């Protein structure tokens, strides 16, 4: 009998713990650390960290460190030494840029260059995967397994988990059913569930596309504000509707609806980025100030779904060259790029211009 959770399940549990503010322990052969997500940190847990009496690091991505003028000696991240007695407002102020303009002086910040940063890097990767702000308190422990056992905390084998977190989770088709749409009466909705317990993804199949010929396809990232609310800050809703309409007119197509809201940073962080845009930053600058890359989406998901549905060739409805590159890298033959230029309005002109200038979109 095997009831013990496997690595995928352990990581899913760790994401849930971090979102709830519960720490996790990362261990390797000769080192272990306690990891707390700064976004869900509480004042009591911060006091508990201080009471351990060891030098604690605040791990930040290079983008957030650049905003704070903190030196990222490790290249992709900075290890800021947590001052003794630092309070919750100070710690969370380093992670969240909401008040950067009203309270710009947060330093001077001392960052470490000695020692290994692999566990810090893994902590940030894990926290990102939980859709939280990429900032972590990293506390060295002498006996990580013993500390975890005495505090009922989850333990992760860092050496095994690090490559696993970079591997795309497998997808299983859950169910398919007919769903007549305004754009196409002959439509089916396919539900795909990742093995790692993350968000499900959907495929909308229009008609009965021939698997032997290139199918009209679109990889559409979920946009709650644009797709559902009709937001004018982006072109997502019009793109979704135009893609389905074109597939309906042609009588065949497949639209992959990928739950990667806000370019993969989640709806809460997307709203944080919107708030920063209200302060005068463009969409890329806002993501960087939050500590994220320009685009955190993983388009390998789309290729995996297409293959599971039997497609190997597509006419891709997109303005984004990165999608074409990723499909081809995943052995999906893109025989044609079909432009999808819709939805421009006075509220999103600057946003679309930034996508074209900084993200290479063909607009």
Automatic annotation (TrEMBL):
SUPFAM superfamilies: RibA-like. Keywords: GTP-binding, Hydrolase, Membrane, Metal-binding, Nucleotide-binding, Riboflavin biosynthesis, Transmembrane, Transmembrane helix, Zinc. It holds the Pfam family GTP_cyclohydro2. GO terms for molecular function: GTP binding; GTP cyclohydrolase II activity; zinc ion binding. Pathway: Cofactor biosynthesis; riboflavin biosynthesis; 5-amino-6-(D-ribitylamino)uracil from GTP: step 1/4. InterPro entries: GTP_cyclohydro_II (IPR032677), RibA (IPR000926), RibA-like_sf (IPR036144). One of its GO terms (biological process) is riboflavin biosynthetic process. It is an enzyme of class 3 (hydrolase). Gene3D superfamilies: GTP cyclohydrolase II. Residues 172-339 form the GTP cyclohydrolase II domain. Binds 1 zinc ion per subunit. The chain crosses the membrane at residues 20-38. The keyword Nucleus does not apply. It catalyses: GTP + 4 H2O = 2,5-diamino-6-hydroxy-4-(5-phosphoribosylamino)-pyrimidine + formate + 2 phosphate + 3 H(+). PANTHER family: 3,4-DIHYDROXY-2-BUTANONE 4-PHOSPHATE SYNTHASE, GTP CYCLOHYDROLASE II-RELATED. This is GTP cyclohydrolase-2. The lineage of its organism: Bacteria, Pseudomonadati, Pseudomonadota, Alphaproteobacteria, Rhodobacterales.
């Amino acid at each position: 009998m095997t009831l013990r959770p496997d690595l995928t399940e352990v990581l899913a549990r760790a994401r849930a713990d971090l979102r709830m503010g519960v720490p996790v322990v990362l261990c390797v052969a000769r080192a272990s650390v306690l990891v707390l997500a700064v976004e869900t940190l509480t004042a009591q847990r911060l006091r508990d960290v201080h009471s351990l009496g060891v030098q604690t690091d605040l791990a930040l991505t290079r983008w957030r460190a650049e905003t704070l003028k903190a030196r990222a000696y490790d290249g992709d991240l900075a290890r800021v030494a947590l001052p003794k007695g630092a309070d919750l407002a100070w710690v969370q102020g380093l992670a969240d840029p909401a008040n950067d303009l009203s309270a710009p002086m947060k330093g001077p910040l001392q960052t470490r260059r000695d020692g290994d940063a692999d566990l810090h890097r893994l902590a940030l990767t894990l926290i990102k995967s939980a859709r939280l702000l990429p900032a972590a308190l990293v506390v060295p422990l002498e006996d990580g397994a013993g500390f975890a056992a005495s505090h009922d905390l989850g333990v992760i084998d860092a050496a095994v988990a690090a490559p696993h977190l970079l591997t795309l989770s497998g997808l299983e088709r859950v169910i398919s059913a007919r769903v007549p749409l305004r754009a196409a009466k002959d439509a089916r909705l396919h539900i795909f569930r990742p093995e790692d317990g993350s968000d499900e993804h959907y495929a909308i199949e229009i008609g009965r596309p021939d698997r032997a010929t290139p199918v009209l396809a679109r990889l559409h990232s979920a946009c709650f504000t644009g797709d559902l609310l009709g937001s004018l800050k982006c072109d997502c809703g019009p793109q979704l509707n135009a893609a389905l309409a074109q597939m309906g007119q042609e009588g065949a197509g497949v639209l992959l609806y990928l739950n990667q809201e806000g370019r993969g940073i989640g709806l809460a962080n997307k709203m944080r980025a919107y708030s920063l845009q209200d302060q005068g930053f463009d969409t890329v600058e806002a993501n960087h100030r939050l500590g994220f890359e320009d685009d955190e989406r993983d388009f390998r998901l789309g290729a995996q779904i297409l293959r599971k549905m039997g497609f190997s060739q597509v006419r891709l409805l997109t303005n984004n060259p990165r999608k074409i590159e990723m499909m081809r890298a995943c052995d999906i033959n893109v025989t044609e790029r079909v432009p999808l230029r819709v939805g421009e309005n006075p509220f999103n002109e600057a946003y679309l211009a930034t996508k074209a200038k900084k993200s290479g979109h063909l607009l």
